Every structure is written in structure tokens, then in C-alpha cells.
Target: VacJ family lipoprotein
Amino acid sequence: MKERKSRRWSSRMVTAVLLALVASSPVVAQNLQEPPGEQAMPVATNDPYESWNRKVFVFNDSVDRWFLRPVAQGYRTVTPDLVDRGITNFFNNLTEIRNFTNSLLQLKGESAVVAFGRFTFNTVFGLGGIFDVANAFELPERPEDFGQTLATWGVDSGPYLMLPFLGPSTPRYFTGMAADGFMLPSAWESVESPEWYYLRGLQIVDKRADLIPAESFISGDRYTFMRNAFLQRREFLINDGKITEDPFASDDEDLMLDDF
Model:
């Protein structure tokens, strides 16, 4: 019994490290996927630990550059586009569970209905989520995570942090990410099958591979660009896309986040 628990926790540690690597990839996983719009919410740069954060950034970037990115590049080379898209859709469909739960916690009834509808349509008519048929029903994804939920409850973001392996974060974002992790089947105590961990590894590599084209958008000081992109993306999500002015109008570099 102890040996089984030891193997299970070892698998979880491996999964956690891989998840951390994708979060610390050079394009800030999931933070460059949607544009903040032509104008954006002002974002205060609260980075009191910049000296430390930069050192951690260099470490994370090196790990990604020498390990995760080569694996993702190989995956991108051998995987047909149709298969790659199907894998991405499958895992994106699972995030609707998170979207639905957090929409309820934020009392966003319409978003909860959309998340439930997307999951139902894609699971039933999209062959388990391999095909994203929900868009045909005019049900675009509405991302909601527990970090956003905490923000709506009045929890302050806290200072910007670059965490070893975990990448760009804030205390509020990290807490939300940990809470959302418990919504994954691999986090449930009743799930002991190693197949779940293989799926998580596939999800991480697939996500990293999809982010490779976004690397061309990085310009200027990489650390500053990534920090601004992360903070702007979080503000955009928390405010449900309600944006007012350019947060980087006074910055030297021009931040361009196109939808891809």
C-alpha cells in the first residue's frame, strides 16, 4: 500500500514539474493567446522583487530552452495539423469544467450556461471534444479561473512574482491556479491510473508546441515584455474584456498581442 502511494505521489511530482515548465515557457503560456483589444486596461507594475525575479526568469528560460521546447518542437514536427488541433480541442474542452465552476462562484449565470453548453455540445457532437462544434452554435469560450474568482471577491493581486518552474505569477494567481488544479481528474484521490499522467504530459507538450509561433511576438527586454503581457492578460480576464486605455502607452516598447 505504501509503495502504491509512493508511486502515485512520484507521478504527481513529475506532472507538477512539467506543468510548471509550460507555465514558464518564453511566451507565458495562455497569456498571449487572446488579444486585449485595440485599447486595454491600465496595469500597475507592482514588481518590488525585480532583481530576484529576473534571476528566476533566466533559470526558467534555460530549462524551457534546453528541455521542454525541443520536445515540443519534435512533437510539432511529427504531428499532423489535424491531429494536433484535435488534441488541443480535447484538452480545451476539459477546461470548461473549470470555467463552469468559477462562473457559478462569480454568480455569472450566462457564462456558466455557455460553459455547460460548450462542454455538452463538444463532448456529445464533437466526439469527446476532439472537434470544437460549440463555435458553430455561437458559443465562444469564456475563460474563468479561480484567480479571477478571488479578484471578484475583492482579494488583492499582490506583487508580481517569477517563481522557479512555475513562471509568471502573483499570490492571488498562484492560489487560484492551485485551487483549479484540484478540478483535474489527476488530482482526485480515487484516480490511480497512470494513464491520467500520460495525458497530462501530452497536454503540456501540446500546449508548448502551440505556443512556439507566438515567440516571434516577443521584442525588447524579454523579462519586461513577459511581465507586462502576463499582467495585462490577467487584468483583461478579470475585467471580462472591459478595457479603457493603453496600459503601455508610456512604455518604450510597443506591445502587440495578436489573436492566433
Q: What stands out?
A: Confidence is low (pLDDT under 50) at residues 2-30, 32-41, 246-260.
